[in-house]
Amino acid sequence: xxxxxxxxxxxxxxxxxxxxxxxxxxxxxxxxxxxxxxxxxxxxxxxxxxxxxxxxxxxxxxxxxxxxxxxxxxxxxxxxxxxxxxxxxxxxxxxxxxxxxxxxxxxxxxxxxxxxxxxxxxxxxxxxxxxxxxxxxxxxxxxxxxxxxxxxxxxxxxxxxxxxxxxxxxxxxxxxxxxxxxxxxxxxxxxxxxxxxxxxxxxxxxxxxxxxxxxxxxxxxxxxxxxxxxxxxxxxxxxxxxxxxxxxxxxxxxxxxxxxxxxxxxxxxxxxxxxxxxxxxxxxxxxxxxxxxxxxxxxxxxxxxxxxxxxxxxxxxxxxxxxxxxxxxxxxxxxxx
Length: 337
Fold this sequence. Notes:
By secondary structure, the chain is of the alpha+beta class. 72% of the residues lie in helices and 7% in strands. Strands 2-3-1-4 form a four-stranded antiparallel β-sheet.
């Protein structure tokens, strides 16, 4: 027994010496000391959340960019259409087409608010019909209507109804189109597109928030015992929530930055493709619908705002989720604990 007691005392003394040496080493090199984080910095759930946030941000930025493109293109269409009106002169038996065009152009040019008038000649009319009737078309052999283009002052447009009444007696087969129907449709289409895109963007942000809530719950489930111990020994809920907020802010910003950068690269690639294929029918159609796919400075600023908003939403969502979790812990405890 004496030998056993002596051996035990010797072991305790050796352990105390080793502990003291370790404490001295840690005191001598404080820079090397690391405090384990409450939330693990690298785990499968964290990497999955970064990927989910990146995908959500990518889709959100694409939606925002598409809405910006459609809105800008519709604005350009509206501006171009509102600057012009057309007079269409239909052929008729015994009608001198050239004289009728000159008469219609002269009458329209006399109205205040008309900057200029231009008769679309035979060659230009034939080029307009080439996609449907082919080349080498002789428009004198077909009953093809002719056009007069009227350039108007946007700030002070002419009285189109009075212009119609003045042209009708002189050129009965002429009809004036001020494109107001097209302008109204374009405005309605732009507003509808913006509304739909905004709704999709809100849904994606909501899905991102829910993903963060579930990820925060998962992180707390894996570290629940640590959180409860910290909470019961006196750690404030503000401190615990700040640890989660910092972790998920970094996670959210990583995913959001990756998704935003991918969306910007998509717009840059499409813009480059459009500029390299200007003469092809596909590029012409795409350019007519969406311009040159350049979202401009406002578009890129909007992408940056989306990235920042998603990062902030991630941090705020994790904060409130942790606070609610700690409140649940307090409610589960019986009185007097």
